[in-house]
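Q: Structure for this?
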Amino acid sequence: MPKKKPTITTVAAAAGVAVSTVSRYLNGHYVSRPVRARLADVIETLGYSRSWTARNLSLGRKGCIGVAVDSSEDPWFTQLLTGIEEELSTRDASLMLASLELRGNYDARIVQDWIRGRRIDGLIVPKSSQREHALLEAAVDAQVPTVLVAPHEIVRMAAVIRGDNLTAGRTVASHLASLGHKVVGFAGGPRYSIDSQHRLRGLREELRRRGVTLHPRATAFCGSYQAEAGTRFAQKLLERPLDVTAMVFGNDALALGFMRVAQQRGVRMPRDLSIVGFDNIAAGALAWPGLTTVAQPMREMGRDAVRYLFEASSHRKPPSIDYPMELVMRESTGPPGRNVTP
Amino acid sequence: MPKKKPTITTVAAAAGVAVSTVSRYLNGHYVSRPVRARLADVIETLGYSRSWTARNLSLGRKGCIGVAVDSSEDPWFTQLLTGIEEELSTRDASLMLASLELRGNYDARIVQDWIRGRRIDGLIVPKSSQREHALLEAAVDAQVPTVLVAPHEIVRMAAVIRGDNLTAGRTVASHLASLGHKVVGFAGGPRYSIDSQHRLRGLREELRRRGVTLHPRATAFCGSYQAEAGTRFAQKLLERPLDVTAMVFGNDALALGFMRVAQQRGVRMPRDLSIVGFDNIAAGALAWPGLTTVAQPMREMGRDAVRYLFEASSHRKPPSIDYPMELVMRESTGPPGRNVTP
DNA sequence: TTGTATGCGTTATCAG
DNA sequence: CTGATAACGCATACAA
């Protein structure tokens, strides 16, 4: 006999009060002490727990925020996700997840349905680029608060959260310069990626200040942030003798992809070549040599993203915060050695 | 002027029919052709889209399935997640995600709230172990269909989906034997993990059949599936000359953790030691040497998990399927070399 | 084939 | 301080 779940009406009846009183009790509004005690008792013995669906319908909200990402298998993203979860768990709201590239090709219909069907109270879009334009437009149309995390391209339709990539670039430059490197290279992600651009700019500035050369032939964009782009870049760069003693990559995935090919070809790191990445993904710490990188406070950024969403109404203008980034030194960087011919 | 969102009532009024007719139209029930056309038109111009919350309330369901995992940063899990998303996207349902170890220590309250508050139509728990017992009990109590993916320990409270680890173990044994290895070792995850036990058993059986020794001193359990456990194991095993020419690990994370330490100490792989893992996580493909491993059809398992959830009522007994696993050969395995003294 | 009436479980606005 | 009662937006018997 599957006993039916108790509702607020059941509780009210059992306690001999009106449903509205129970509701008030549930929401911490005023009820007399004796009634409160009785209600607590009844609810306990009945094992009552209110219906989220009904509550949300009544409140006119959805109780869910949406997260739309290229792929939920991206380790950079999962760090952010943890932060999002963390903050959400304190706000009795939950998250809906959608990968935009689930079956190989881009498809944002699910997210479009979310916002058209008013299924979400807010939207978080990490690493958005031009192709998310329609999505963001729909979001502002439907008045669903949106926050972009580390968008590839510039937008003024939503709040933005991103790391302080300019300073991060400078930090990397300092690190390399103080190790004694005189000529370094840079390989970014997509050319249009703001993160890559800022990282490069910071790197370039500080390098120049330190009298270090940023070699033009070893400075490029890989077209993507995927590891495969890093391996392709490696195949090209390592065809001929190295011009540089250190390479800085747009992110860890690129760096790791590069390192695999480099090791395969006998390039010893950091002796022949120092490597630096960005993002501090787990794979970098597991590699040998461990990948020197720059960490962003992803969890904090995730938390702040949902915080902003829940306070969106009170904000006049969406904030655009730059989070501090921290150099994580591992074995892939060291003093420069002689150049190598692979 | 934020135009108010149209409801089913708005549509009915605009079309000059009753709401029930609109509802019928929406759900594909019978409506006359002219009315249907008019409705389609009105809905289009109004930009109407029905409220999920209200629909679910009326239907008595939640429209969400819950996924409770140790950490959503686990790359093994994110593969599963992709499959879950994939299937969910075809069923107009969404997923709620909760990490059980969000802040370092175990806390399942959020998930308990889900099932107590009837917020989910089903529950997926990957890699469950003893500590999830209370959770599963609550789930059966509340009649929420549950499916366990690759549970560490045996349970009879829910449906189970897992890979065919026995055969996988045999496959690895064959691979190693045919490469010419004569003495191999095994390092599993937690001792109680069924996956590790099965993988070991399959390995042992086939090894014996092939006349290959499974060295007892190099056969152990690392206590966890985390990479750190692999590094600890490496530090211990590599203290003295190796007794084996190949090591099989309970999963890729352990193997990668081991490899890092091994490379650090100058062990050349596969020349000095061949390495095999399980799970085929991305980091293994990026390492050098690339990690030979056994892949599970994680996406398919994820899809099937939600399929089961949605058909739970029609099933008499929960199925417990073993999914085929596939050897992925990379550079970390090769013919045995001479033993090495690190 | 279509309309009417009722229920889903809460919250909020009123009177009392 | 508490109790009716009207939303919330949709689905579904049942009646017409």
